[in-house]
Known about the structure:
Blueprint: E1 8-14, H1 17-27, H2 32-35, H3 37-42, H4 52-67, E2 71-80, E3 89-100, E4 103-112, E5 115-126
Amino acid sequence: MTIERGQSVTFRKTLTVAEQGFFTGISGNLGAAHVDRVKARAMGLPDMAVFELAAGALFSTALSRLAGPDYRIGAISFSFHRAVTVGETLAATATSGGPEGKSLICHLAGEIDGQTVVTGEAVLVPRES
């Protein structure tokens, strides 16, 4: 499969309270902004903050759909420009920046209601046989 520069895939998902609960159990993170609506609202958020790694995980779906089963994530980085909150729909887009040797560089952008709230980069590497 040839992946052209500029080719992109977007994965959209509304992040729910139930998923927040699952990720709390997985991560063990009990930070007030993530698990307590009252405290999150007192901090100025409209609802609990979604765990950044849970929001970032949506990009793994976009990357997988873009590159297919022959690649895996070798490195990934994110910058969150604001908190993503429970109930918001994140559109996670992975765009091919082209090959670099055997690796594939991808640019990441996450939008909510047309506003970019997450940016980043991923390096996909060939999956070992």
